Amino acid sequence: MPGTPSAHTRRASSTGESAEPPAPRIAQLPARDKLERLLRVARGKKKALILTHDNPDPDSLAAAVTLAHILERRVGMEARVGYGGIVGRAENIAFVKVLRLPVSHVSQLDFDDFDLFGLVDTQPPVGNHSLPSRLPADIVIDHHPLRDESLQAPFADVGGDFGATSTMVVEYLRAARLEPSVEVATALFYGIKADTRDLGRETTQTDIDSYLWLFPRCDKHLLGQIEHPELPARYFQLHHTAIERAKVYGTAIVTDLEEVYTPDMVAEVAERMMFLEGMKWSLAYATYRNQLFVSLRVKDRRMNAGKLIRDICEDFGGSSGGHGSMAGARLPLSGRANQRKALKRELVNRFLEAFGVEDERPVSLLTAQDA
After folding, report:
1. Is the terminal CB of the chain with fewer CB neighbours within 10 Å at N or C?
2. Which CATH superfamily is domain 9-15+22-227 in?
3. In which domain of life is the source organism classified (predicted)?
């Protein structure tokens, strides 16, 4: 009957609970509403520091630079972009150099100079960033699965359905009616292109729309310089090591790269090994500055790479994360050489069991025969 409280309302009233539905998360809001909330958090602040994840990739760098640009243009505040670790892959070095991106290593920054902190393409609890624990993040923007602790930030756009974080900030850019420079447009375009593997991996319609919006705005000549840089000799030496040490376990391939000159190469090798015919799983790992970097690629849509790597690596400390088909971890290494080897064996055995190939006899990639 009209005016009669529903059963749900009566139950809520009797328990003292509000009958109002829970407020939607920021990730569920339209782009314009997200932008308004973002600017509301930033207003009144003087200087922002936007941090990528450590050893940043193009998606993370492009999104961070664009967020800083939006804050400068729409709030009138100074904004810097910082990163920890290194920019190591040749394409990523070219990305920063060719586009002249205004990014600084955290060693060149004083955190006390800033009163607003943002994390892009990462989240506070993940641990793969350089924001000190004493400083809470005010802004968190990430296309990876939501970590509940991230919702403690005043602005947390996390847990949406996007193939790249660059796509997310393109939405803000368009809602703010800001036209990106050629360099920023090219950075965002390449960020989406790289993270979705040319729109062929975990791509949504929003990724496609952003990609097409950016395409006429980016510089194809600059893009070519980024995608086809000159490569150092050690790049080819590392790939030689990867192939030489790769072992095939049925539908899985595993390779130990030993010591690498940049942790970025672990992900690149894991990606490349996935092209081997018949593979459903690819695992690469290597040591860099007393840390073990692990990269996982998965073709089986029933398996979530991010969840798998977290479940396996959580006992080893460090940080780990990812999403459907790709994930990575960074684990601390200590002790003597034999202890490190034992840790690696245990780690690989856990992955082989998860892949369902623990009983397969390993075959060297160099001697493997086509079926």
Report:
1. N
2. inorganic pyrophosphatase (n-terminal core) (3.90.1640.10)
3. Bacteria
